[in-house]
Amino acid sequence: MPQTPGLRLKVLVSGLHQLAKKCESVGGELAAAAKPPPISTSGWQSSAATARRAAARAAKDVSAVAARINSRAAGYDAAGTAYAQNDKHGADRLHAVLPR
To answer: pTM of this prediction?
Structure first.
């Protein structure tokens, strides 16, 4: 990814946790939408079967995307927790070397 001069990313623990919650929400919505709609059969049996197969494949793809988003959500949440722990660890080490 190209660097943009003057553009900085400010990472906040709360922001990472908010991003994780948003990803979980979107992943849940996608997972719910992944269920293929019922397709009634009619005189057009071959068309209905083709539509059913296409809907099933689309649902599988949407489910995969939802799983990926949920996986990212877990990663963002873990990153937020690790970031806070690392920040505390650094502060503790700095405090340990300061004269009293």
So the answer is: 0.57
